[in-house]
Amino acid sequence: MRRIETLVLLSTLSISILASESSRPRGVGPEFAKFYKAADSFTCISNPSIKLELSKVNDDYCDCPDGSDEPGTAACTYLSALSPPQPIVGAPNTTFALPGFYCKNKGHIPNYISHTFVNDGVCDYEVCCDGSDEWAGVGGVKCEDKCKEIGKDWRRLDDIRQKSARAALKKKTELVNEAKALRAGVQLRISNLQVEIKDLEKKVEESKKKYEEVERSERGKVVKSQGKGSKVTVLAGLAKQRVEELRDAVIGLVNKRDELRNKVKELETILSTFKEEYNPNFNDEGVKRAVKSWEDYAAKKDAAGEVDESAEDRDIEEVSKADSETEGINWAEWETEEESDVDALYAFEEYLPGPVRAWVHQKLTDLRVLLIENGILADNANSGSESKAVSNARTAYQSLNDDLGIKQSSVGDLTKDLEKDYGQDDIFRALKDTCISKDSGEYEYELCWLDKTSQKSKKGGGNTGMGNFVRFDKMYFDEEVDAEGKGLGTGERTVLMYENGQHCWNGPNRQTTVVLACAEKDEIWKVVEQEKCMYRMDVGSPAVCENGQKKADPKKDEL
Ligand code: MAN
Predict the structure, then answer these.
(1) pTM metric for this prediction
(2) Helix, strand or coil for residue 397?
(3) What is the DSSP letter of 338?
(4) Contacts of 196 (CB under 8 A, 6+ apart)
(5) Domain named MRH: which ranges (predicted)?
C-alpha cells in the first residue's frame, strides 16, 4: 500500500466555500481559492514578487518556488520532502505552499493527495475516491468515481465507530465517577479517622494519666506479698528448704555409718572365731598370713582403746531433729513480714468513721509517696512485683496507644494515596487492582493496572514478572487502526511504564511499555517483545478516550 505523505482531512468545509468550487483551477482546495481569483494574472502564494500569466497555472511547468502555480499537476513535486533535491536557481523559498492536490470526493469526504501521486498511472482510491488525481489518463489509466460506494461504506463503518466512541466515552464517564467516589471514600475515611484520632488522643491522655496515678498511688501502698513476698521472706523460705535438705542428708549418712559399723563388728567376730578355731599344725601359708594380719589389726585396735563417740552422736541426733522439736530456728517468724509502722497507720484507718476514712487514706498515701520520692521509704514499684491495678491500667493505656498508632499510620497511608498520580481525572483509581489478560503465542499475558505485568508459559511453570508499575508517560505513535478500531492510530498516547520485573537470563530486568488507546472496553490488543525481555503491550481502554477525539485515522481502514 502506498504511503501517503501529506494528508489533511477536510470534513468541515463550509457550503459557501464549496459554492465557489467550479471557479477554482484543478487541484485547488477551497481554502486556497482566494489566491486564484484574479482575472488577469497569478501571484505565487509565498513569493508575491513573482507574477505569472494565468496560462502558466497548471501548465505542467513549475514556475513558483513554492509550487503554487501547479496545484493540479505533479510538475512541482520535487519540492516535496520525498522528491530528490533539485536546486532551483534563484529560488528564495522551496517550501510547498499547498498541502496537495485537492480531490473533491463528492459523496464522500474531500481530501488532499500528495502531488507526487497526481497522474502517476495509479488510482489512489484510498484518498481520492473520485479518481480525479489521474485526470490525464497516463498509460491509459481511467479511474472511475467510486465515492458513492466508498462513501456509503465509510459512513456505515463511521456510524459503528461513532457509536463505539460514544459508548467508550460513557464508560469513561462512569470510570471518572467511580474514581471520584473512591477518592471521596478515601477522604471520608481520613476525616472519620481524624475524628476518631482526636477522641482517642484524649482517651490515651486520660488513660496515661490514670496509669501514672495508679502507679503513683500503688507505690504509696504497703504491698502485701502475694506469693513471692519480700526479700527476707523469700530468703527465709529458701534457707528453710536448704536446712531441711542438709538435715535429710545427715540422717542418711548416720544410717549408712551405723550399717557399716555393724558389718565391721560382724567381720571382726568371724575373724576372731577363725583365729580360735583354725588348725596351726596344718601348714597352710595363706591361712597363717591371714591370722597374722588379724592379730596385728586387733593389737592396733586394743592400743587405740575404745573411742567415745556418744557426744558426737548426740550432736548429730540433735541436728537431725525438726526445728519445731528443738530450740532451732522459728521459721514462722521469718516467713511472715512484721507489720511496719506505716501498716499500723493503715490498720488504724479501720477504726475511723466512714467519711473521714477516705480522706485520711488519701493523706496517708500522699505522705507515703512523698517519703518514697524523697528516698526516705523504699519504693515498692521496684520490688519486681506489680499490682493488678497497675498492670490493668498499663494494659488499658498501652492498648489505646497502640490503637492510636494504627489509626495515625492509616491516615498517613490514605493521605499518601490521595497525593498519588492516578492519571488524568484520577481515572486509574477506578481500575487499580483489576487485571486483564491475553493469550498470545506461547504465553498468556496479564496486565494489572498500576500494579504489574506478567507472562505465563502455556507449557507450564509459574508467572514471570514483566515489570511493576512505576509511572505514567506520553509517547507519539503513528500506527494503523484495524476495521474493529483496534490499534494505536496517530497521535500522542498515554503510556504506563512497568519496570524492574524478573531478571532476564543474560539480559536486563524485564520491563513493559503499556501503550493505551481509546476503546470501548479494557483489552490487550497486542504484545510484542521488541528486544529481549523488553515488551510492548498495546491496550485499549475507555480510560484514555477524549471528548471529540478522532478515535481512528480513517485514511486506511475506512475504504
Ligand atoms: C522467557 C520469556 C521470554 C524471554 C526469555 C529470555 O522465555 O520471558 O519472553 O525472551 O525468557 O530468556
Answers:
(1) 0.59
(2) helix
(3) P
(4) 407
(5) 433-547
